[in-house]
Design brief:
heterodimer; A: alpha/beta; 3-stranded parallel sheet; 22% strand; B: 437 residues; 6-stranded mixed sheet; 34% helix; 17% strand
Amino acid sequence: MTDKISVLNPVGFPPKITARPLAPRLPSLQGKTLYLVDCRFDDSDVFLKQMQTWFAEHMPSVRTVFKPISSVYLKDDPATWEEIRASGHAAIVGVGH
Amino acid sequence: MTIEATYGVPTVAMHTDKFDRVVRSVADVSGMPGLRQVFVPQPIMGKTAAQLRAYIDGKDPISGRPVMQEVIEGLTRPFAGDDSTVEYDRSTPRLVEPDTEENLHRLFLDNRWTDMLPIVLPTEERVAAMLAATHRKPDEIVGRMRSTHFREHWEYSVEKVAVNAVMAGARPEYFPVILALAATGVTARSSSSSAMASMAVVNGPIRHEIGMNAGTGALGPYNHANATIGRAYGLLSQNGQGGSVPGWSYMGNQGNGYAYNSVTFAENEERSPWEPFHVQHGSRPGESAVSVFSGVRSTAFTLGLRETYWREHVRNLLRGMDPNTPPTLLLDPIAARQFVDRGGFTRKDALIDWLYENAVMPAGEYWDYQLVQNYIYPRATFGEEPWASMLKAAPDELIPMFRREDIHVVVVGGETNGYWRIMGCTYQKTVAVDEWR
């Protein structure tokens, strides 16, 4: 029989996870203002403008606003988030990878 | 996630399907497992408007449902329950369940705690021997790391660093350098899809004390200290930050062979015509320090400097680098002295000035680079200098490829010839070794 040995675990210490609330959903998008937030990465602007066209064709009552973030996606953008909270009802952020 | 959780705006996040597992795991550890996420095929980059419209009209490759149905429902479908007050701790046991050596080696592999090469099992005795090489207490927190900007930081203690140092095969006398690397908080296991690695340059008396190599073969597998210190840096990064697993916490598209030992070497201070790297960055001569660089993907190389066209040759090498990743010249002492003799660069600063002034390209070409579009153009439009001013240049006007402060020079090599290379990498920081002894 081969002896068993004891070794140490190499993995670091994770932080505590605290659940963060998600925003209540809308009853519908009819008549609402929807921000399409461009994270400015790998032609995401072209993608979101096509999505904007889709809304114009299929859900014309939805007002869409194409909104590039102010700088790179690595930086928080409170001015943009404040604008969306003040002037919009919902947001689509993309395209992440 | 910020706009949803902090600003209360119902949001759907769009991603490409290759990032399914990683973005879901980021949402989980951010306390938002219910975040609404919709997927389209990879890639977005380079596709025509019509092709991207087809993505929108098509199905989410993860759920199999129409993309726009997922988007609209993501903004309108109520959540089933409210778990907004949930908190829970995660912990890491100090010991692994005792087992045979063979089974433990298998366990370490299966848990992806290794770099897929054989490791030394971190027994209590081996870890204790490593810990004896520092005056720091085993439970002292050395630092924290994460694999990417969006992930949570994990912490690691002196003992955790020692465990990974043992696994890498490092000797106890190397431990202060390894602790200093851990203290940088700069991961050697970034999850970037660009397949990053790290580079570590050691300066000062510690190089000789532990037998590091700054000469022939310094960047290769020919020196125990260079090899195992760099390997330890990689292992402590992937384990200290909570993992580096393809699809979950590592997305480097091609991977990077430099990651095996994080290009770890000593600078050849004795044969350099210039001041040591760490002295340029705040250390005193006689102190020991380690400096870390990130990126470490692209390299260009050549032999020596020719009398007539050396300037053109160096410019060609610089133009071959991606402008988003600045150059660090790794010069054999022969090449370093040629820069002094041919160019009159008796000070390293003068060489860096010349490199900055000669690494130029037409503005139109510069701004069209994909990585410049992703990472520099947004900052330029935000008004950040020097890029905001560079944005005013005409398309055919020559503009700098790099900021001057991002260009560096290190001397390494054994003078078997005057070969030298440019490593595309970003200097992060220099940390003193002596305080970790």
